[in-house]
Design brief:
The protein has 6 helices and 4 strands. It is an alpha/beta fold and 129 residues long.
Length: 129
Amino acid sequence: MICKLCHSFFLEEDSIFGLFSFSELCQECKEKYSPSRLYEVFPIRGGIVEYHYLYDDLSLNVYQKQYLSKYLSVFYLDMLSNDKNFDLFIFLDDDVLFEDEYLGLFINGFNNVFMFSLMRKEIIYKDIF
């Protein structure tokens, strides 16, 4: 089989249980790209901003980002449950951070904000708020 991320050939152990389901990733990529939920919290006027992300320090190409974005579903479940009564949900990608001066103006009227992204983005508090 060919790994979806590194495009290398790999073999998996054959068994009756895996007869009709095939692994998409090699063992190295499974270990390297296993998602872990990380977050940072910063205060704003009368509330907080919780920033959640899955990968801390990876350089990914567009194809890898597209494949790994399926793991963002854990954040979608958080948004549906909304246990902490967030006022605003923001998905951070490269386009949103390019306009970071407008991000602070947008968040200004909200108390509890939930921001999430695939990879950790460097957010400079003083530039946004």
